[in-house]
Amino acid sequence: MWTNRGGLGACPTLAAMAFAGALCAQPSALLSNSDALALETHIVQLVEATMVSTPALAQPGTPLLESAREALAALHRDTMEAAPTQRLLTNVRAYLALADAVPKPYPFPRTAQDQFDDLHNSLARLDSHFAALLEFRDRAINGPDPDKLQRYGEADAHLNPPDPRKPRVVFMGDSITDNWRLNEYFPDQDFINRGISGQTTDQMLGRFEADVVQLKPAAVVIFGGTNDLYRRIPVAAVENNIRAMAELAQFNGIRVLIATLLPVSDYHKDRDVNYERTPRRAPEQIRELNRWIQSYCASKDFTFVNYYSEVMDAAGFFKPDLSDDGLHPNSQGYRIMAPVVLQALQSVVTQPAQQSPRRHRLFPLGK
């Protein structure tokens, strides 16, 4: 008999059999996001069910079950996150070791033994998925092109030289830049999009020479950092990467504009649990990094591009009508951002390189 403890839902025997058959049909050790989450949920349900069938497990097993539930909650937010997957595996392994050591009722119901067998098999399947997940992440980070230089390699090679009458500007960034249709928002401009979804600032730095310096732009808009926060990269490391990009551009005579990170919000999490953004991109960390960007721009006479204040609501979050997922701007969001960067560029690329230092207006960065 399946239980419904902890609000994870009932799971009858026929459904368990169908679930096991679906797993056997998987051709790869790496499960899809939905299948991985289904397997992880199934494992926690089995722990709950076997604890009912073996009363001696109730007291020593409860802390392990609670820790497994917490790991499952984290995986609902991000099924590709390795740490909670490992935590779930560790706690369920410990639970099974405990189950082998405690006395079981006699006679032990066949249904209960089937649940323990299912738990062993499901845990082995999750272990295989976890190993494949680590391999997948390792290839992504340490593969032959970790910075994705090939993404724009051909386009960079065939790009015409800049036209002196139309200043070239490179937009360097992550998915927020990658998704921005610059030709639509800035018609008849030599604005080059060099955003790559998912990139961190160290990856942006790794391709900065190829995707910015060698294109000989008049200016570059550096816009990154949100993926670093998501991956728990220290703010100081993000600052170092932004500083390195900016000073590399300056050394090559390219005017530097650095944009704030955008706020995030959880307004759309009812539509999709993955749209709960604040646990992995803490608003205070975003504000901390934005304050540093503002201060750094002032100290180096770089241009500060304040998207943050323009798209933030009174509570300090991404306005719900400007983003459909709490992270990326929608078309209306980009329409708000476009004049902000255009105004900044107009004040920069029209001025001679030997200009005297500008006084920077300090923009409020919100709550």
Any overview of this molecule?
- The protein is an alpha/beta fold and about 375 residues long.
- It folds into 2 domains: about 140 residues; about 200 residues, Rossmann fold (3-Layer(aba) Sandwich).
- It has a 5-stranded parallel β-sheet with strand order 2-1-3-4-5, with helices on both faces.
- Helix 2 packs antiparallel against helix 3, helix 2 runs antiparallel to helix 5 and helix 4 runs antiparallel to helix 5.
- The longest helix has about 35 residues.
Percentage beta strand: 5-15%
Number of strands: 5
User: Uncertain segments of ≥5 residues (pLDDT<50)?
Assistant: 1-27, 351-364
The CATH homologous superfamily of the largest domain is termed: SGNH hydrolase
Number of helices: 15
Kindly report how far apart the N and C termini lie. 51 Å
Basic shape: elongated
Q: What composes the largest sheet? A: 5 strands, parallel
Radius of gyration: 26 Å
Strand order of the largest sheet: 2-1-3-4-5
Helical proportion? 40-55%
| Secondary-structure element series | HHHHHHEHHEHHEHHEHEHH
Given helix and strand content, the structural type is alpha/beta
Count of domain modules: 2
CATH topology of the largest domain: Rossmann fold
Question: From the coordinates shown, what is the CATH architecture of the largest domain?
Answer: 3-Layer(aba) Sandwich
CATH class of the largest domain: Alpha Beta
Write down the overall mean pLDDT: 87
